[in-house]
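Lab manual, section 2.4: Encoding a predicted structure.

Procedure: take the sequence of the chain (301 residues), apply the prediction step described in section 2.3, and record the output as structure tokens. A sample record is shown.
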Amino acid sequence: MFASVNRLRPHRKRRTGLLGLGYVTPVILIMGALVILPLISTAWDSFYNVNPMKAGKPFVGFGNYTTLLADPNVRQSWSNTFIYVAFTVLMETGFGLGAALLLNRIRFGRSWLLAALILPWCLPPVVNAVVWGWIFNPSYGVLNNALVALGVLNENKVWFNDRITALFLISVVHAWRMMPLTAIILLAALQSIPKDLYEAARLDGAGPIKMFRKVTLPLIGSGLAIALSQSTVFAFNLFDEAWILNGTGYDTRTVMIQVFMAAFQNLKFSYGMALSILAMLASLVVSAVYVLRVYRETRYD
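Recorded output:
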């Protein structure tokens, strides 16, 4: 009998493997058609000089990439993007963690508060930027009126005249929209922590701060890494908020705006492709750091 059971096990494993392959095949095909093939095509064309106004496609090798390194507009857009990433990741992580900790302690009305928290995330980025544009308006904006009424300002201020202020405000707009996603991820991580650990730490004399450092933070490390990863990737791809609030302004232009201008305004398609490949690689490098952190946090020795 045991011999017959052992003969059936490889057959069942083979059927399970084929069933799993059948489930993932549509996803593989869709990802291949919509992501992998366009990515390969973009990377390939970045080594050519693609110009819709001229026939042919001469090979230039790494010419587009070397030109990018010498372009001051591209360097400025990278500088702006890294500042956006720093601002938005810090704000999304800090406020998202605070909101998750608060929601985790609330027992009554949590679902209503969670629904209210998700509202900014549900807004399209264009709508979000337009609403905040009204708030920052130098003539009739709510921000200027409130600060003048409180005596903080003597007169209305044009907020986007100063580079750092403009970068910070655009980061605030983006973080306002994306912070709920971070909060949801961290709330799920917090709710997976056994309550017994807090009771044991309390019996050992640990206070709230020590319990947060010794119990909460280590156990939400995986969720925190995922939240940081998604925040960073979305920050690298920031486009709508910066475009709507300050257009193609040199001081607030992101890498994605620079890609759009190069490819669709100046019709330098291969130049824009090369820049988009570099932006993707930068996102992948940062994401890989977070993924490795998740692996170290979750693997079993």
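Check your result against the sample. The chain has a mean pLDDT of 85.
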